[in-house]
Specification:
Largest interface: A-B, 31 and 32 residues
Strand content of chain B: 15-25%
Order of helices and strands of chain A: EHEEHEHEEEEHEEEH
Shape of chain A: globular
Largest sheet of chain A: 9 strands, mixed
Number of strands of chain A: 11
Helix content of chain B: 25-40%
Radius of gyration of chain B: 26 Å
Number of strands of chain B: 28
Strand content of chain A: 25-35%
Strand order of the largest sheet of chain A: 2-1-3-4-11-10-9-6-7
Number of helices of chain B: 26
Structural class of chain B: alpha+beta
Structural class of chain A: alpha/beta
Oligomer: heterodimer
Strand order of the largest sheet of chain B: 8-10-7-11-9-12-13
Number of helices of chain A: 5
Chain lengths: ~230, ~725
C-alpha cells in the first residue's frame, strides 16, 4: 500500500501528508515531483495543500499544466484513488477532474480555524469508514474556498450523491453562520462521478493525531487503506 | 568628487567622513561612499547600541551560536538545535503596511534558514496607535494581511504574538517578527567566505531598484508627510520565490558543497559581501556585471545598495559548483557565480571591466563608529493619583470594559488570518499563554512567546525591561516548559536624544539583570532606533522573544480550567498596585505610575515551581497574570473552558488592586483536590506564596473579598463580549 504525494514547488502540506501516511499509518509513501510523470507505483495519490506555483494568478491555475497532472489525470481516469486537500482540491478543480470552481472567501480574508462538517457520502475511497450524517470537527486554512458551480451542475452533484462534506454547526445543522467561506449549498468537498477522486477545502491532515487535539481526519486516510485492501 | 551635500545625503557626519578618509588614505568614489553609508548606518552597524549590548549575558552550556550571526542557536538535545531571532520592520510598515510587514517576515525567515534550519514557527509582536487615529485601521489591516500573505504562502505557521494599542504609536507603529527553526546541531551554516578561489554565488530574485537605501531610511526619523515620498524605499515581497529559495537551500545543505551563506537583507549585496569577508578575514572579488538585474541601466551603486528581497549570497566548494547550480535549477532559481574568495582582505568590485570599488573588508565593520552617547535623566512618571481615589461602584462593569478593550479583547480577528497549523506541529494554538510546537520524532515541544508591556516601560524602562523577560519566562513556564534563551528587538526613539539613551540603557540593564536571574542568555537580537515622528518618540519598547523547552509534550499545561470541582490557587504576592494597569487606562482614562515592582528572585522561584508542578502532573490549568490582573486571568480560564469559577479572597489590598492590579510574579493555577497537599508542599518548599482562592464550577464568574461580592457575571455573556469586541471595534471603520 503506497501513497504518492505530489509536490508542487509551492506545496507546503506535503510533509504533513507524508507524516500521516508513513509515520502514523505505517504505509509506504513517496513524494512525486511536479515535473515528473512517474507516479512511482502509488496506489493512492494525494495532492496536498499549499500555494502550488505561488497562486498569484488563481489558486491551482498553473498547476494543471504541470507534467505530473497528466499522469494524475490518467491515473484518475483508470479509477485510481486521488485526494485533493485545500490547494490540492483547487488544482483538481482547475484540472477539470472535479466540477466547479472556488472564489475568494465571502469575508475577503484568509481564514484559519476549526469548522464542523457533515459527512454526506461514504461511497468514496476516502470516507468509507465514516458514518453517513456524522459530524466532524476539522480545520480550514484558505483564502479561496468559496465553492461555486452552475445550478445544473450543483443539482447533478446532489442528485448523484457526489457532495461528500457540507459545512454545518456542531449539531449538524446546515446553517449560514456555519459556512466559513460562502460556498454554494455549504459544499466543503465533492467527489467525481465514479467516486474515486475526492477534493475538499478542510484539512484532514491537520487533525489526524491525538497530540493535535483532534483525530477526526485520520479516517480519511485509513479509508483509503481499507478501500484498497477490499479491492 | 565627494561634496558636503553628498556626505549629508548619505547620512554621514563629518567625523565619520574623516574616518573614511583615514581608512582609505584617499577620497572614496560614489560607490564606496554608498557602501560606507549603508555599513555605518545605525541599522547595520549598531553604532549607538553596541557598547550597551555587550552587557547582555550571551553564553551558556546550551548556546551553540550567540549574537553576531544571522540568528542565535541553542542546543535542545537529541542532536537538534533551535535557531531563532526577532527583527523589526517598523518604518517600512508605516509607509506601506502590507509590503512592509510581508518583507519583515521574509527577512527573518531568511535569517533562520540561512543557518541551515527549517523554520517551524513565526511570532508577531505588533504595536499600533489608537484605533481612531488617522490611517490606523488601514495600518492594522495591511500589517496583518502582509504577515499572513507571506507566512501562509511560505507554509510557516504564525503561532503566537501580541498586539498593543496606544496613542503613543500613532505616528510610528512597530512590527516585530520572530522566527524559530530547527536544525541538526552538526549541520549549522555560517556567513563565512573561506577558501581562496572558491566561487561566490548569487542566488534568488533578480536585483531591482527597490529598497535602495532602506537601511539608511530605517536610521532616520519621519517628519511631516514624508511617508508618501519614501514609498520607493520599501521593498516588495515575493513569498513564492522565497519558498523556492528556502527549499533549494535546505536541499543544498544536505550536500557538503556549501562553505558559507548569508542572506541579502538590509544593505543587500553590500552587507552580505563585506560581512562574510570581514568575519573570515578573507577578501572577495565581485564582477557586478554578472549580477542578475531586473532592469537595464542599473549602476554599480544601485546594484550594491538595492534591497530587493529573496536573495542569498553563498560560497561553494570550488569542485562542487555543478551540484549547487543543478539544485537551484531544479527549483527554477537564478544562480550565478559573480565572484570568488581571495586572501587580499579587500572587497574589490568590477563593472564592465573597470574597478568601481576597492575597499578593505574588515575595517568597514571593525572600525565602524561606536558611540557611547550621552544619557540624560529619565522622564518622571506621572504620579499615581489613583491612591487617593474612591473605589469604583460597579466592579462587574469595570471587568466588562476591560475585557472589551482592544488590548485585552481576544485577537482572533488577527490570528485566524494566519495559518497557525501548517506543519501539524502546533499543539497549543494562538490565544494561550505561549504557543507549543511539538518536535516530530521526539517527545519534546518548543514553547514560544513574545512579550513586553510598553506602558510599564514608559513608566520605568529598567523595570519594564526586566518584567518583559520575567513575564515571557512565566508564560512559558505556565505551559510546563523551562526557558532556554531569548532574542530581543529593542525599539526606541532617536539615540541622539539623551532622554532616549537613558531609556535604552535602563531597559538593557533590566533585560540583563532578569536574564541573569533566570540564567537565560540573549542569543540574537535587533535594535531599532529613530522610531519617532516630528520629534515625538515612541515609548521604550524592548520586545523579548523567548524559547522554552518542554521535555514531554504529554505533560503540557493549558490555560482553560479542566474540571468542575478543581481547586483554584493564586501563586505569588499581590501588592496594592494599580500603576500602568489596563484598569487605569480603560476605566479611569489615565496613564499613571508607578510601574509595578519586580522581584527577580521571586520570579525565578515561581518559574521553577510551575515547571516542577507540570513535570509531576499536578496541574489542571495554569495562566500567567498580566494585563487586567486576577479578574481577567480568571475570566480567560473560565471563558476558554466553559466552566464557571467561584472565588473568595482574603486580602488586604484595595478591591480594585486585588481584581485588576498588575503585580508581577503571579500565576493562576487549578488542580484536582487530591493534589492540593502536594501543590502546597511544593510551593512552600520553593518559597512561593500560595493562596487557595476558590473552586471551578457553575456557569458564573463570582469573586468576593472578605465576604463581600465584588463580581458576579455570566461566563457566556463575558465570552460573547470578549471574543467579538475587537472585530467590532475594527469593522466599525469605513476603511475596511
Amino acid at each position: 500500500m503506497k501513497f504518492g504525494i505530489v509536490v508542487f514547488p509551492g506545496s507546503n502540506c506535503d510533509q504533513d501528508c507524508f507524516h500521516i501516511a508513513k509515520d502514523l499509518l505505517g504505509c509506504e509513501a513517496e513524494y512525486v515531483w511536479h515535473g515528473d510523470r512517474d507516479l512511482k507505483g502509488a496506489d493512492v495519490v494525494l495532492l496536498p495543500g499549499g500555494f502550488a506555483y505561488g497562486d498569484y494568478l488563481r489558486a491551482g491555475a498553473l498547476a494543471r499544466f504541470s507534467p505530473v497532472m497528466e499522469s494524475v489525470t490518467a491515473f484518475a481516469r483508470e479509477g485510481g484513488a486521488v485526494l485533493g486537500i485545500c490547494n490540492g482540491f483547487q488544482v483538481l478543480l482547475e484540472a477539470g477532474l472535479l466540477p466547479g470552481a472556488v472564489r475568494v472567501n465571502r469575508g475577503l480574508r484568509y481564514v484559519c480555524r476549526d469548522v464542523h462538517l457533515k459527512v454526506e457520502s461514504i461511497d468514496t475511497p476516502f470516507t468509507r469508514l465514516y458514518s453517513p450524517g456524522e459530524v466532524l470537527k476539522m480545520p480550514i486554512g484558505h483564502m479561496e474556498g468559496n465553492y461555486t458551480a452552475p445550478p445544473d451542475v450543483l443539482d447533478a452533484l446532489e442528485r448523484e450523491k457526489r457532495v461528500v462534506f457540507r459545512y454545518c454547526d456542531s449539531e449538524g445543522r446546515i446553517v449560514g453562520a456555519a459556512n466559513p467561506n460562502g460556498a454554494d449549498r455549504a459544499i466543503a468537498g465533492i467527489a467525481s462521478r465514479e467516486g474515486n477522486v475526492v477534493g475538499l477545502m478542510p484539512h484532514p491532515d491537520r487533525c489526524s493525531e491525538a497530540v493535535l487535539g483532534n483525530e477526526a481526519g485520520r479516517k480519511m486516510f485509513e479509508s483509503a487503506v481499507a478501500a484498497l485492501a477490499a479491492r | 568628487m565627494i561634496t558636503e551635500e553628498l556626505i549629508r545625503d548619505h547620512n554621514l557626519t563629518h567625523e565619520e567622513y574623516s574616518r573614511i578618509l583615514e581608512i582609505l588614505g584617499r577620497e572614496p568614489n560614489l560607490v564606496e561612499l554608498g557602501i560606507f553609508s549603508a555599513m555605518w548606518s545605525e541599522h547595520c552597524s549598531y553604532k549607538s547600541s553596541r557598547v550597551h549590548l555587550k552587557t547582555f549575558p550571551t553564553t551558556g552550556p546550551r548556546v551553540i551560536q550567540g549574537p553576531g550571526e544571522n540568528a542565535g542557536v541553542v542546543d535542545i538535545g537529541d542532536g537538534l538545535a533551535v535557531v531563532f531571532k526577532m527583527e523589526s520592520h517598523n518604518h517600512p510598515s508605516f509607509i506601506e503596511p502590507y509590503q512592509g510587514a510581508a518583507t519583515g517576515v521574509g527577512g527573518i525567515l531568511r535569517d533562520v534558514f540561512t543557518m541551515g534550519a527549517r523554520p517551524v514557527a513565526s511570532l508577531d509582536s505588533l504595536r499600533f496607535g489608537a484605533l481612531d487615529a488617522p490611517r490606523m485601521k488601514h495600518l492594522v489591516d495591511g500589517v496583518v494581511r502582509g504577515i499572513a500573505g507571506y507566512g501562509n504562502c511560505m507554509g510557516i505557521p504564525t503561532v503566537a504574538g501580541e498586539t498593543t494599542f496606544d496613542p503613543a504609536y500613532n505616528g510610528n507603529i512597530l512590527v516585530n517578527v520572530m522566527n524559530v527553526g530547527l536544525v541538526r546541531s552538526d549541520r549549522i551554516f555560517l556567513g563565512r567566505a573561506e577558501g581562496v578561489g572558491n566561487p561566490l554565488i548569487y542566488v534568488g530574485s533578480k536585483t531591482g531598484r527597490d529598497g535602495i537605501h532602506g537601511a539608511t531610511m530605517a536610521s532616520e526619523q519621519f517628519a511631516g508627510d514624508e511617508t508618501k515620498q519614501k514609498r520607493p524605499t520599501v521593498q516588495v515581497g515575493d513569498p513564492f520565490t522565497e519558498k523556492l529559495l528556502m527549499e533549494a537551500c535546505l536541499e543544498l545543505f544536505e550536500t557538503d558543497a556549501v562553505v558559507g551563506i548569508q542572506d541579502m537583507g538590509a544593505a543587500g549585496l553590500t552587507s552580505s559581501s563585506f560581512e562574510m569577508a570581514g568575519r573570515s578575514g578573507s577578501g572577495i572579488e565581485i564582477d557586478l556585471s554578472k549580477v542578475p538585474v531586473r532592469e537595464t541601466g542599473m549602476t554599480p551603486y544601485e546594484i550594491m545598495l538595492s534591497e530587493s528581497q529573496e536573495r542569498m549570497l553563498l560560497v561553494a566548494r570550488r569542485d562542487r559548483m555543478d551540484e549547487v547550480l543543478r539544485i537551484f535549477r531544479k527549483w527554477d532559481l537564478d544562480a550565478v557565480a559573480i565572484g570568488r574568495v581571495t586572501d587580499s582582505g579587500r572587497v574589490v568590485l568590477r563593472f564592465d571591466g573597470q574597478i568601481v570599488a576597492d575597499l578593505p573588508a574588515a575595517p568597514l565593520s571593525d572600525r565602524a563608529p561606536v558611540y557611547d552617547r550621552s544619557r540624560g535623566a529619565l522622564l518622571p512618571a506621572p504620579p499615581g493619583l489613583w491612591r487617593d481615589e474612591p473605589e469604583p461602584s460597579d466592579y462587574g462593569d469595570c471587568l466588562r470594559r476591560i475585557l472589551a478593550s482592544p488590548n485585552v479583547a481576544e485577537k482572533s480577528w488577527i490570528w485566524t488570518q494566519y495559518d497557525y497549523m501548517v506543519g501539524t506541529n502546533t499543539v497549543e494554538r494562538p490565544g494561550g499563554d505561549a504557543a507549543l510546537v511539538r518536535i516530530k520524532g521526539t517527545p519534546k515541544a518548543l514553547a514560544l512567546k513574545s512579550d513586553v508591556n510598553p506602558f510599564f516601560c514608559a513608566l520605568d524602562p529598567y523595570r519594564g525591561g526586566a518584567i518583559a523577560v520575567a513575564e515571557a519566562a512565566r508564560s512559558i513556564a505556565c505551559t510546563g516548559a523551562a526557558p532556554l534563551a531569548i532574542t530581543d528587538c529593542l525599539n526606541f526613539g532617536s539615540p541622539e536624544r539623551p532622554e532616549v539613551m537613558a531609556q535604552f540603557t535602563a531597559a538593557v540593564r533590566g533585560i540583563s539583570d532578569a536574564c541573569r536571574a533566570f540564567d537565560v542568555p540573549v542569543v540574537s537580537g535587533n535594535v531599532s532606533f529613530y522610531n519617532e515622528t516630528d520629534g515625538r518618540a515612541i515609548p521604550p519598547t524592548p520586545t523579548v522573544g523567548i524559547v522554552g523547552l518542554l521535555e514531554d509534550v504529554e505533560r503540557r499545561v493549558r490555560v482553560p480550567f479542566r474540571a468542575a470541582g478543581d481547586v483554584v490557587a493564586l501563586l505569588g504576592s499581590t501588592r496594592d498596585e494599580l500603576g500602568g494597569s489596563e484598569f487605569l487606562r480603560t476605566v479611569r482614562g489615565r496613564d499613571e505610575g508607578p510601574c509595578p515592582e519586580v522581584d527577580l528572585e521571586a520570579e525565578r522561584r515561581l518559574v521553577h515551581l510551575l515547571v516542577a508542578l507540570a513535570k509531576h502532573r499536578k496541574l489542571a490549568s495554569a495562566h500567567d497574570l498580566s494585563d487586567g490582573g486576577l479578574a481577567v486571568a480568571l475570566a480567560e480560564s473560565a471563558m476558554k473552558s466553559g466552566f464557571g469559577v467561584a472565588i473568595a479572597c482574603d486580602s488586604n489590598v484595595r478591591p480594585s488592586a486585588l481584581l485588576f492590579g498588575e503585580s508581577t510574579g503571579r500565576a493562576l493555577v487549578s488542580f484536582d483536590p487530591r493534589s492540593e497537599a502536594a501543590v502546597r508542599a511544593a510551593a512552600e518548599q520553593s518559597k512561593v506564596p500560595i493562596a487557595v482562592i476558590g473552586r471551578v464550577g457553575g456557569e458564573r464568574l463570582e469573586i468576593s473579598l472578605r465576604g463581600r461580592k465584588l463580581i458576579d457575571e455570566q461566563i457566556a455573556a463575558l465570552r460573547d463580549l470578549w471574543s467579538t469586541a475587537f472585530a467590532r471595534a475594527l469593522e466599525s471603520a469605513d476603511v475596511l
